[in-house]
Design a protein that fits this description.
Blueprint lengths: L9 H8 L18 H10 L2 E3 L2 H4 L18 E4 L2 H9 L4 E2 L22 H11 L8 H20 L4 E3 H6 L1 H11 L6 H7 L3 H17 L5 H7 L1 E3 L5 E3 L2 H17 L1 H13 L2 H9 L4 H11 L6 E5 L3 E3 L2 E3 L4 E4 L1 H4 L34 H18 L4 E2 L8 E2 L5 E2 L3 E3 L2
Helix pairs in contact: 6-8, 6-17, 8-9, 8-12, 10-11, 10-12, 13-15, 13-17
This protein binds protoporphyrin IX containing FE (HEM).
Protoporphyrin IX containing FE (HEM) binds next to α8, α12, α13 and α17.
Length: 415
């Protein structure tokens, strides 16, 4: 990668990363009303409602997220912080998949650790956890993030204007995750395009897996080919190809699909409040709180879900075994029982745990990577682009999307 080289094909980035485009249509990418007032009213009515989040939200359509809803199951949605947190804490009652997972059977997210529970989940997650600790974020910055950010900034700095969502935010996570996998820059967007069909991801990573089995290097695929896991009977084995592919599919999807939207959300919140942006520019220790507050106030993925494993009376509602419980973490993050003036974006709030990275055993594996990407990326913009501001003559950015939320174009001027 040279100083200005890693620039991705902008038209293709726009196509693959436009929330309102065909790629995101199934999960409500085009949804543009602000759902938070409605969610607040629902949260005030009751902690848990029967129905999916989209069925309960006026103006929403019959969208899907992570394969849900399943037509033959009753669905419920938790809206308060206490109810959502209780779902996350009890991973036996609220399981990540309806059926036991056989990771060696086939490759895909449904065979990955995201779908596992209990001891099996702990065994598989432990294989990659050391590369995702707060300390390991430095490895990610050194290996991929800093170089990517520097090259992107070097490209846009002389232009005096940019569209940050595509020119900047979208590129960083996809180049970061493919970089630590050892996938060449030229194939980075192919990985993103392949997310719609996991077999295409396997086509890209299979030759790399074979090569690292021969000669491991300092990358994530090498971690996976060298990992050993114990099965149910305690027999230890090296990960099979399908097991490695499932890890790859999960990590490439989670790594490239989330942080760009959250970075755009954070930048939009700051650019629309020039006095807050100036304060962060002046005192860089405020950047982390600004990122955390944007996560609380506008999480990019406002809902995840769990399968209910036995009949339960839960926060005032009887929920039968086999039901699906939606965790409306976006609504939980604005629960007035926990935060004062919860609808305000206030970077000076006292720090409290939020649910934007989930909770319990499946809490986001990549949260320290995501934070490192956002701190490095936004920090570099503040360091290199003086007088960064929204372009007053362009359409202002707005938040759109339902199950995946983010900003529309973020047109800026600087210099
Ligand atoms: C701002 C960016 C991100 C957000 C908001 C986010 C959010 C989340 C959430 C809410 C979960 C829990 C899902 C559930 O409860 O079922 C999760 C899990 C996960 N995330 Fe992230 N994520 C982000 C970035 C990343 C990145 C950069 C990576 C990888 C490099 C990553 C990898 C994962 C993985 C592997 C899991 C599954 C963990 C498990 O099942 O134990 N995430 N993420």
């Amino acid at each position: 990668m040279t100083e200005t080289a890693p620039l991705l094909d902008v038209d293709r980035v726009r196509e693959l990363f436009d929330l309102r485009g065909a790629y995101m249509a199934h999960n409500g990418g085009g949804f543009s009303p602000d759902p938070y007032p409605l969610w607040a009213a629902l949260r005030e009515q009751a902690p848990v409602h029967e129905g999916t989040l989209h069925a309960l939200t006026e103006g929403a359509e019959d969208w899907t997220f992570q394969g849900l809803p399943e037509r033959d199951r009753p669905h419920f949605t938790a809206f308060t912080y206490a109810a959502c947190n209780d779902v996350y804490k009890d991973s036996e009652l609220f399981a990540s998949s309806a059926n036991a997972v056989d990771p060696t059977a086939s490759a895909g997210v449904e065979s990955s650790m995201l779908s596992m529970g209990g001891a099996q989940h702990r065994r598989y997650r432990a294989l990659v956890q050391p590369r995702f600790t707060p300390k390991a974020a430095e490895w990610w910055i050194r290996k991929s993030i800093q170089e990517t950010v520097d090259a992107l900034v070097a490209h846009i700095r002389p232009l005096k204007r940019a569209e940050l969502n595509v020119d900047f935010c979208a590129a960083i996570p996809v180049l970061t995750i493919t970089g630590v996998f050892g996938i060449p820059v030229e194939q980075a967007l192919d990985v993103r395009a392949a997310m719609a069909n996991p077999m295409d991801v396997i086509t890209i990573v299979a030759p790399l897996v074979a090569a690292r089995r021969e000669e491991p290097g300092d990358d994530l695929i090498s971690v996976l080919v060298q990992a050993e896991v114990a099965d149910e009977d305690g027999v230890v084995h090296r990960l099979t190809d399908p097991e490695i592919y499932s890890f790859c599919i999960l990590l490439l999807a989670a790594g490239s699909g989330t942080t760009w939207k959250q970075m755009g959300i954070t930048l939009t919140a700051l650019l629309q409040r020039p006095e807050v942006l100036a304060a962060v520019r002046e005192d860089r220790s405020l950047l982390r709180p600004a990122i955390e507050e944007a996560l609380r106030w506008q999480p990019t993925d406002p809902m995840f879900s769990r399968f209910v494993t036995r009949d339960v009376d839960f926060h005032g509602v009887h929920v039968p075994k086999g039901a699906v419980m939606h965790i409306a973490l976006g609504a939980a993050n604005r629960d007035p029982a926990r935060w004062e003036r919860p609808d305000e974006f206030d970077i000076h709030r006292p720090v409290k745990p939020i649910l934007s990275f989930g909770g319990g055993p499946h809490i986001c594996l990549g949260m320290h990577v995501a934070r490192a990407e956002m701190v490095t990326g936004i920090g570099a913009l503040l360091d290199n682009l003086p007088n960064l501001r929204l372009d007053p003559d362009a359409e202002p950015p707005r938040y759109v999307g339902f199950y995946e939320r983010g900003a529309t174009a973020i047109p800026v001027l600087f210099g």
